[in-house]
Amino acid sequence: MKVIAVDVFVLKTPLDQPFAFSQGWVHQRAATLVRVQTDNGLTGWGEAFAQGLEPPEISAAVIKHALTPILMDRDALDINVLWHDMYHRTRDYGRKGSVLAGISAIDIALWDLAGHFYSQPVYQLLGGAFRKNIQPYATGFYRIKGQGEQVRLAEEAVQHCEAGFKAMKIKLGFGIDDDIAVMEAIGRALGADHGCELMVDTNHAYGRAEAEKLGHVLEEHNVRWYEEPLVAEDIEGYRELRRALSVPIAAGENEHSIYGFSRLLDVIDVAQPDVGSCGGITAARDITAMAQSKGVMVNPHVWGSAIAQAASLQLIAALPVTNHSLYATQPILEYDRSSHPFRQDLVAAPWVLHEGMIKVPDGPGLGVDVRMDTIERYQVASQ
Ligand code: MG
């Protein structure tokens, strides 16, 4: 099954209402999608994660100029061989960021292709599903003004609960005092017996001292994890923070490959590889094995389109728990609840919440039917 074409699609659409996370204002939705075609008529889809401030054209250029020449005429089933070829041949200018996101997109597409070739879902190719229904957690709480929005954010928390979510992630990192006001307002709005799990994400807004100060506040709110308290480079800071706090520390959406995670996994409790940027399903599988050897739980991050979500669902289905018990904590799916046409409209059957859970697609590959009409509507020139 030889690769005969690699097509890249860059999608963009402006946001009606720009929003902020701690690192800046997001004005558009963007996605970098890839389609790999083979000589036996099969097609695989993948996605390079483009975070809110990242130009999607960078990974598109990587795919077109650096990766496509490696892939052409190669056997699409040689997924591991191709991953190492792509990584080694981009190493001296890659290893992280948009280059790894480009490799991730291709890798996801190759797993999708393999699934179609063998008529099996990706989770089956990974060794089977530990779970076929996955609990989503609501991601939201973006700012539309900046600071001082605790009343609106508390209302949003109640809306997530009413929509059936049993877990939600609160965006902080807008100043410690503002963060505390938000946590207290949400706590009051949900009440003492809300039964919802809370996570917190500051997107590495603070240095060590402030991150620790906020962490002690979070200990009072019983959060499931404290995400990206520090920049990924500050390994020693993570080590100190983890010792100082009782709240579990999570990170990984801005780390890549086994090489990056090998250091991070020594200083965190929850690893969050993003399948669209860590190096794809192949790297996520290897990172998971490493995490297990170090006793670290894996809970993938995902903020991409429906294709990245589909890849994450397949990955989470096949993800072993690190610390087994009868009632072990299970991985949950990040589910960004803000408006996003590249999710609802990109696949023929978008996910629906059923009794608080999302069913893993069991069709071949990623189990999605990608809509070209949506791609054509939002596609922009990628050069
Ligand atoms: Mg995050």
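^ magnesium ion complex. The domain at 124-359 is CATH 3.20.20.120 (TIM Barrel). The mean pLDDT is 96.
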